[in-house]
Amino acid sequence: MADEQWLEMIQKAEKKCLIQDGKRKVHYLFSPGEEMVEEYNCETDVLIRRAWRKKSSLGGEGQWDVEIGDPEEHFLNIDQVLIKESSSAPFVSRRITKTSLEWRIRNLPYPLSVYSVTAEPDSKCITVRTTNKKYFKRLAIPDLERVGLLPEQDKIQFTHNHNTLIISYQKPQKVYGLEKKILQEIKKIKTSKEDVQCNPS
Question: Fewer CB atoms < 10 Å away: N or C end of the chain?
Fold first, then answer.
């Protein structure tokens, strides 16, 4: 099963854990050249950041690909001058709460009535589009893929505030179960004495 494969991958990874600033920070080393970092809120045990990195084709360290949390800043190298990409372009950040999977798409100024948010079981994603054809985005849902589930329309809700489209997907029970198992594995990792600041249960 998909969830067992993900759990086995976590169990077999080389792991290190650090407690810092109220966060449980975990580093995973998988196959050569692939690593993942996660951060959990110590009070709630909710995952607040997950990022992946693979070695580049030339063997150097690649860029972090952020799955959960705010994306990394990107720069354009034009004639050896680093220029920060426009901060006014729409960008997606993902969140996980106790009850839902959440996407926030910032810098979208259109009213709520313009947006269509659709579950796409065939492509295993959620599609966001606007009736004015100004924006289109497919949102991957790795949390569902890891437990072998397809997206369902009736689990989707969305709202719009302060130029941000907020999409929530009701967390299925199978996702709850996998999160609990992963957290149990993480809490087995030996950490510094600061670990007493975190929820051990």
Answer: C
